[in-house]
Every structure is written in structure tokens, then in C-alpha cells.
TrEMBL record:
It holds the Pfam family TPP_enzyme_C. It comes from Chromobacterium haemolyticum. Residues 418-572 form the Thiamine pyrophosphate enzyme TPP-binding domain. InterPro entries: DHS-like_NAD/FAD-binding_dom, Myo_inos_IolD, THDP-binding, Thiamin_PyroP_enz_cen_dom, Thiamin_PyroP_enz_TPP-bd_dom, TPP-bd_CS, TPP_enz, TPP_enzyme_TPP-bd. This is 3D-(3,5/4)-trihydroxycyclohexane-1,2-dione acylhydrolase (Decyclizing). GO terms for biological process: inositol catabolic process; isoleucine biosynthetic process; L-valine biosynthetic process. Residues 219-352 form the Thiamine pyrophosphate enzyme central domain.
Amino acid sequence: MSTIRLTMAQALVRYLAAQRVELGGEELPLFAGVWAIFGHGNVAGLGEALQQAGDSLPTWRAHNEQGMAHAAIAYAKAHFRRRMMAVTSSIGPGATNLVTAAALAHVNRLPLLLLPGDVFVSRAPDPVLQQLEAPQDGTLSVNDCLRPVSRYFDRIVHPAQLLTALPRALAVLTDPAQCGPATLALPQDVQTMAWDYPTDWFRPRRWRIAAPPPETDALERAARALAAARRPLIVAGGGVLYSAGGAAALRAFAERHGAPVAETQAGKSALPWDHPLQLGAIGVTGSPAANRLAEQADLVLALGTRLQDFSTGSGQLFRQARLLSVNVNALDGIKADAVALTGDAALCLEALSARLDGWRADAGWSAEARALAEDWRAETARVTGQRQPHGLPYDGEVIGAVQRHPGSERDDIVVCAAGTLPAELHKLWRAATPGGYHLEYGYSCMGYEIAGGLGVKMARPEREVIVMVGDGSYLMMNSELATSVMLDRKLIVVVLDNRGYGCINRLQQACGGAPFNNLLEDCRQGRHGAPRVDFAAHARALGAEAEHVSDIAGLEAALVRARAAERSYLIVIDTDPARTTEAGGCWWEVAVPEVSERAEVRAARQVYEDRLRRRQYE
């Protein structure tokens, strides 16, 4: 057997560089590179190996470990989980900065390879800089924080362990059912140890993203359930987009059988916004069209969705309907006592349609769906078409300006994650092409937006990427704006400044609470008060072009300048923290205190208890 002597880090890098995937008939590297912030825990071992690899496995430098992991996650999401990136940090704070991003990838079922440095296996120099000493367990390091938020975790304590650990990690990363973050903790002394690796282990390997077909008996049960339905509703989740051909299969199924379609945050863009059977968003942030039919449906076909509480109205929105769940993940498929069909979304839809020849939804149901969808499109146009609102504009009016400004394209990609904007975007953004709507709403992580936008732009350099972010999220994490300038990956960033956490301020008051500690004006302050943050000046300091606009007309003009710019461009507009789109939505369970001195809280508690009783007896 032929061997080659390499350090563990060199072998790891060489193996990753050899992995391939086929996309659109073209063979490409599975890994588009490694994000790295070096420290003493990874610079000598993995850093040396990455430098030697050069363009065979590009190294990308960021400014924050969580931010670069967000960029890697967004890259994978923009590629519908078919390509990915790795991330390496030093030990200590660099590693623990990855925990939030790992949880985000875990919740959203997105591939992310984490390679944090670790303490010495030999323990000879213990305690090293940044080492956590756990008196109850000598094997613990801070990297063990990543165990519960990893789909696969391993600590490489000998160079030979790569031979089994790396293939296992990649098997998880490329498995549509188990997909999520994989962590290989790399002790800094083991990174530098040499071993004789089999040369065949480094031969190029093509990974195939599996598309599991449905099992015959389960398929027959699912077909019988659909055949008995007269008022079906399809709820399209992210699994439709992650399925090769899923969007086309969804459209064909809906048209052939007259079944209207609603969409979750992750599934939005699977069917174009202007399709006659497209009802729009469903759930707490849903359209009146989708939610009305959800309450009347006799069967809900849940396609590739986790059935999160925002999609189901805390389990109440379509509880009267029989639930048929199509999902590659068996645990997702059995939620809410559903009839489960485990398999790839496209393959399941095609197989179901073949068994339902001649079956269609009632003509009246399909006609009502088309009418409601058309009414909602008209209402969306009215809401987003306001150019001269009384007072400050609100998010819906800003969204309208972003989508209609001269030069706006159907294949623009919007990126967002947290606050008020996801609700407004879910209802109002007109997603025309698959992947044109990039919302991280599984973990709804403030600070994802700009870093995520960078990852999307790296995945889709030919498309304009528009990041929409509130002032709160911007202040939490903005450093990758500088990275976008450094890497020449232009973003358009629209900052909506409502002077605080407007979304939670409204929720606080809806639960009877007094405005407290959310908007800056309601926070404890010192002698000089809360500063008026000049976001445009800050963005310019990070290397971007930037400006502040005073109204919707100014925003539209600024967007034209941003589109023509050669580097990242940030636009700030002041917005109303109170106004939202009134149409749509449904109940969402947020517990309210049983006892309070405030009459408003007691009244909100009564409403909450009434809803709980309705859930129990309906």
C-alpha cells in the first residue's frame, strides 16, 4: 500500500480539497473553502496546511467567528445544501463564539463543518492560554459546548482517527435527513503530528446528495388520504427547495390537482408569488388568504416542513384538517399525529400524482383559492405602494421601495433573520425565483443578516443580494460588512432604524407589559442619554459607501445608486417602531403571567386562558 507522510492538519486539508459534488452536470469542489480566524490553537498546524493548499481549498478571513460561521451556513443554504464551507477557530473564545452559529445550522438543518482548535492531548503544558479547567472531568474543554448543537462530534486525539472521523462527518453533512453541523475538535499538538496516510484516501470522491424514494405501503396510505380530500391545502417548507426538482414538482402537482399552496418562511420562493394558486405566507406571519383556507381545509399536505409554531399557529391553525406530512426526516414526518410519507419531496409528489390520476380538489375550493390569492396580491400592492406615508414609513413601505426601484430584478435575493422584518417580508416580499428569499427564521438569530448576506453573495455572485436589517441586529453584528469590502463581494444593505427592538416592544405590550428596556427611549440611561447612532458614518468607516435617506422617494433614488456602485453600499432610513401590516396573522402562544399588579397583564392573561380553553375543548 502506497502512503504519504503528512501532519494531521495537512491530511485533513488535502482530504477536504479532494471532495467533489456534481451540480448541473458540472463537477465542483464540495467545499468552497475554509473560513479561518487564527490563534495559537490553530495557526501553527491547520494554518500552515491551509497556506500550503492555496487555491485548492481557499482560505477566507473574517472579523468574527460567529459571523464567518453564519457566512458559511448562508453559502450552503444558497446552494440548497449541495455545496458547503468549513470554519476553523482557535481554542477558547474563538471556539465558543461558534456555538450560536452551530445551533443555527442545527435548527435549520444546514451543513457546516466546524474545526475548532483544542487543548493539548499530551496535557504536558496544561493549563495553556484560554484553557478551561474542569475539576470534575479532565477530558473536558470548551469545545464540548458544541456537542449538543452538533449532528456529529469527534475529538481527534491521534492522526489516524481522521480516516474514520472525516468520512463520518461528511456523511452527516450530505445526508438530507441528518444534515446539520459536524464538529471535529483538533487538539493543537495533534494537528502537527505526522502519520503515514494511504495515498488512495486522497483520491477525488464525488458525493451524491441522496433523494430517498417513498416506501410503497406508506405511499399508498398517503394517496388514499389525498384521494378522500375535497379541500386540500399544500404547505411548502424548506424541504421543497432542498429537493432537486422540488419546486417544479410542487408547481406541477398544484396545477394538475387544483391544490392551493401556502408557504413557510423556509419554503417561500418555491412557487412564484404571482402563481394563481399561490396564497402566500402561512401562520403567525401569514396572509389572510393562506390562513383562511388553512382553517377550512380538510387535509393539509405538509411538504418538507418542521411544522414550527409560527407555521401552525402554535398547533391551532389547521387542527381540524387531516395532516399528511412528506419529509426526508422521519421524526418531522410523524409530528402532530400526521400520516407520514418519508422521502424526497419531488419524488414523493411525482409518485403521489401518478396514483391520483383524475383526482382534483373541488372546483369551488380551487376557485376560492384563486380569488383569495388575487385579493391578497392586490392588497400587497396597495400596502407596499405607499410612497408618502403620514409620519415615518414602516417596514412594509420600505419593502415596496426595495422591490420596485428602477433596476430591480426578479432574481434579486433578499436576506434577513430577526425582528419585525421577517414577518413583513414573509407577507409582502414578492419572491419570483427559487432561493430569492433567504430568511433565517428557524433560529431567528439577530446578527445573521450581513454575515449571511456575504455568504449568499459568495454563492450567487451573479445576483444582487439585498440585506434588510434593523438597527438592533446591525449593532449586534456588523463586522462582516468590512469583510464584504475586502473580498469584493458587494452587498446592498438597507438599515431600518426604529431606535430599538420594536418587535419585542410590541409583543411586550400585547402581553400587557409596560414599554420597558426595548426601545432606547424606554431604557435606563446615563447623563448623556442614548446616542443617535450614525449608521452611514459607521458603514463608511468599515469601507462601504453609505447614506442616510429621509423618506421613501429618497430610498428609491438611493437604491439606484447602490445598484450602480462597485462596492458594498449601505442605506439607512428611519422607520416607525409601532406600525405593522394589519392583515393576516393568527394566534401565537406566548405565556402571560398568572399574577401581576398591572391590570393590562391580568386582562392579557384572561385572553391567554380563553385561548387555552378553546384549544382543550375544540
